[in-house]
Amino acid sequence: MLTVKTERAGDVVVVKCAGRIVRGQESTLRTAVLSEKLARVFVLDLSDVEAVDAGGLTLLVALHRWTEENRVHLKLVNPRPFVFDISSLHHAIAVLGGCESPRLHATA
Hints:
Elements: E1 2-9, E2 12-21, H1 26-34, E3 41-52, H2 54-69, E4 73-77, H3 89-95, H4 102-107
Parallel strand pairs: 2-3, 3-4
Antiparallel strand pairs: 1-2
């Protein structure tokens, strides 16, 4: 389950997210952002987010596009390290079993 709390300070809106940003839960965050009128900056505080799946990532990309189209800034702050596990291709292959393709190795 995803819960959001919003706080406004002038034209800056802080959206504090807690739980999981996952498929089927996106509307809570989408509604919180899109319902704020006259905001120039959205700060999404992810410090209490446990996980983000493909549906959640799709939502974050859609919100980013919406903010760009509307000349609004979107900032993601305080993500937990395990929410976004970003690796190099080489490291990801090693983690997945060490089956390294010569073509992948040659281009890495």
